[in-house]
């Protein structure tokens, strides 16, 4: 197999990857300090993330296309990988020049530069936030229900009524005073609202 054929097969394999793959080389000033990185290779998934073609990316500089890397700490993270050889794996949100999302990446030193492999986790993070919200709502609902049940029992015992009558009194008092039933229940249990008065006001 010729070298060109081997290169073509390698390129096809890289483009077939679902993960975005970037090969970056370091650009240094006269003192040897890394001042930027140059795009050397981007597979098809990487170009899709960037929303650009090969000609629009290869040979260009990272900070030329995405200057926010300096302010958000990503540039320093890449420099650290190249200088120490210690790989990094992290997640980050990003929004600049048409690239919007949340990403999970692995960055490893290769030569005088790095290779970044990553993928868009925006949908996963959205689902995680939605599940967390549902969890919080369920916990709040459960806590509210417990408080109301406590108030029902407390009112029923003190006023010698049944729990259903006590609940109707709680609900009626809340509606008449434009308050949440959970707040009324807490007030009854704490003694801030007299149970007899609550029942009488809704009789």
The fraction of residues assigned to DSSP E strands is 15-25%
Helix content: 55-70%
**Known CATH architecture of the largest domain:** 2-Layer Sandwich
**What is the total domain count?**
2
Q: For the CA atoms, what is the radius of gyration?
A: 31 Å
Spatial order of the strands in the main sheet? 2-1-5-4-3
Give the end-to-end Cα distance, rounded to a whole number of Å.
94 Å
Mean pLDDT: 88
What's the CATH H-level homologous superfamily of the largest domain? Answer: PAS domain
How many individual β-strands? 5
Global shape: rod-shaped
Counting helices, strands and paired strands, the structural category is alpha+beta
CATH topology of the largest domain: Beta-Lactamase
CATH C-level category of the largest domain: Alpha Beta
Order of helices and strands: HEEHHHHHEEEHHHH
């Amino acid at each position: 197999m010729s070298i060109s054929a081997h290169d073509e097969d390698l390129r096809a394999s890289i483009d077939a990857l679902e993960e975005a793959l970037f090969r970056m080389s370091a650009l240094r000033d006269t003192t040897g300090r890394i001042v930027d990185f140059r795009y050397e290779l981007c597979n098809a998934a990487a170009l899709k993330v960037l929303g650009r073609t090969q000609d629009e990316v290869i040979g260009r500089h990272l900070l030329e296309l995405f200057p926010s890397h300096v302010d958000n700490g990503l540039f320093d993270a890449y420099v650290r990988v190249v200088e120490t050889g210690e790989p990094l794996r992290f997640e980050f949100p990003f929004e600049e020049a048409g690239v919007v999302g949340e990403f999970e990446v692995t960055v490893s030193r290769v030569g005088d530069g790095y290779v970044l492999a990553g993928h868009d986790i925006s949908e996963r993070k959205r689902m995680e936030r939605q599940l967390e919200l549902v969890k919080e709502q369920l916990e709040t609902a459960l806590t509210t229900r417990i408080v109301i049940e406590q108030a029902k029992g407390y009112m029923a015992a003190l006023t010698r009524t049944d729990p259903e009558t006590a609940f109707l009194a709680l609900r009626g008092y809340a509606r008449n005073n434009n308050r949440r039933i959970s707040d009324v229940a807490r007030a009854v249990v704490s003694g801030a609202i007299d149970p007899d008065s609550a029942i009488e006001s809704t009789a």
